[in-house]
Fold this protein.
Amino acid sequence: MKTNTDIHEYLRRKLLRSASILEIGSGPGTAELAKIFSANHGSVTAIEHDPEYLNLSEDVKYIHAPLVPYSDKYFRDATLWYDATKIFNLPRFDAIIVDGPKGSQGRGGFYTYLNNFKAGMYIFDDTHRMWEFRLAGRVADHFEVPFETYTDGLRWFSVVRPKEK
Ligand SMILES: C[S@@+](CC[C@H](N)C(=O)[O-])C[C@H]1O[C@@H](n2cnc3c(N)ncnc32)[C@H](O)[C@@H]1O
């Protein structure tokens, strides 16, 4: 299980190699992303709950945030989200990729804690799934912008780009 490789291709085209990226939900794909960005004066930070997927790459800065019970009236699929007390004072990133926790645990907490996550663009993986699509839509509504969805014919990802102030 890893981030849609099309997302990496998208970021390659849209960002300088010196960009800062946060990936929420890490794995082997995060290490691949770091080969593109960290190696070129950029940075890749990852938020991850499972020790098995922490520290897979020396080029990624990992934040370990265990999953804790979560519920939200808008995201009824979501049962768990990262412990928000472990995720604060984050810098602004050029891009944030939302690819965790697993779909079965729900990703609605990202919307609840959206104010903690400042970025030039937000990328939602797996928006071929209903709740991930709704999450992208809610974040787009928050910023009052449309969102774009890309597909390889099988999987989807969606991008929200807030207007620059
Ligand atoms: C969709 S995966 C995230 C994958 C990550 N963005 C990547 O590109 O490698 C969501 C969660 O599943 C777990 N995970 C990561 N890699 C996995 C793998 N190869 N097989 C099963 N679970 C994995 C981690 O806890 C991760 O936060």
Observations:
- Residues 27 and 141 are 29 Å apart (CA to CA).
- Residues 1-3, 23, 25-30, 48, 50, 53, 99-102 surround S-adenosylmethionine (CB under 6 Å).
- The beta strands are 20-24, 43-48, 60-64, 67-69, 80-82, 93-98, 119-125, 147-151, 156-160.
